[in-house]
Design goal:
The chain is α+β, with helices and mostly antiparallel strands. It has three helices and five strands; from the N terminus they run αβββααββ. The protein is globular.
Length: 128
C-alpha cells in the first residue's frame, strides 16, 4: 500500500516537473544503498528530488520527514551520479558541468485531489 502511494506521488511529481520544462533523466536511481526518487535536467542544472507522499488527513507535513541523515544520503547519491556522468563517454559538457539542486516534493492525496508542494534547493549539503 505505501509503495503504491509512493509511486502515485512520484508519477505526479514527474508530470509536474515536465509541465514546467524539466527533462526526467532517472527515476528511483540507485547506487549501493543510496537512492534518489527523481533526477531531472532543467535550464538551471540537475535536480535531485526526494518525494514524500501522504494521504490526508495528515499528522505532520511530509517535508518534515526528510531527516538530516536522508539529506546526507541524497547528497552522497548526487555526488556519485555526477561522478558517473563525468566518466560516461558522449555526455555533453553542459550536463556534466551542471549545477546541482537538492529538492523536496511533498504530495498530499486527499480523495480525488492531489496537492504538490515543490521546494527547489530545499537544503544545502553540509557534509558529503
Amino acid at each position: 500500500m505505501n509503495r503504491q502511494i509512493g509511486r502515485i506521488g512520484e508519477e505526479a511529481v514527474c508530470a509536474y516537473l515536465q509541465e514546467r520544462g524539466h527533462s526526467i533523466l532517472e527515476r528511483n536511481w540507485r547506487t549501493g544503498h543510496l537512492e534518489v526518487d527523481i533526477i531531472s535536467l532543467y535550464k538551471d542544472g540537475i535536480h535531485f528530488t526526494e518525494v514524500k507522499t501522504r494521504v490526508a488527513p495528515l499528522s505532520a507535513d511530509p517535508m518534515e520527514n526528510i531527516s538530516p541523515a536522508k539529506q546526507r544520503n541524497i547528497s552522497r547519491a548526487a555526488v556519485r551520479y555526477m561522478s558517473q556522468l563525468r566518466k560516461t563517454p558522449g555526455q555533453g559538457t553542459m550536463v556534466q558541468d551542471a549545477e546541482i539542486s537538492l529538492d523536496v516534493a511533498s504530495v498530499v492525496l486527499d480523495g480525488g485531489k492531489t496537492t504538490i508542494e515543490y521546494m527547489a534547493g530545499a537544503y544545502v549539503p553540509m557534509h558529503v
